[in-house]
Amino acid sequence: HQFTVVMKFGETNSEIVFLQDALKHEGVFPTNISSTGYYGSITATAVEKFQTKYGLPVRGKVVEGVTLDKLNNL
After folding, report:
1. Residue 23 near residue 43 (C-beta atoms within 8 A)
2. What are 22-57's pLDDT values in tens digits?
């Protein structure tokens, strides 16, 4: 899946389902929690872990720029 849109805390959409699935694959999103498409605190924490893992700027409440690039190049 190619990520092309900025995703932010509080949003709900189908792109966030793909984000949550990708974060599960990376081992930073709990696999026992459904990928609902809601960008809440669990997703924000997982994004922070992903960003930390790859040395990206840690901005857990928004997925944009280099974080999108990294997701597209896993």
Report:
1. yes
2. 999 999 999 999 999 999 999 999 999 999 999 999
CB atoms under 10 Å from CB of 68, counted, come to 17
Report d(CA 61, CA 45) in Å as an integer. 8
Scanning 1-74, the segments in alpha helix (DSSP H) are 14-25, 41-53, 65-72
Cα(72)–Cα(63) distance, integer angstroms: 12
What tens digit of pLDDT does each residue of 9-19 get? 999 999 999 99
Is the full-model pTM beyond 0.85? yes
The answer to whether the beta carbons of residues 50 and 26 sit under 8 Å apart is: yes
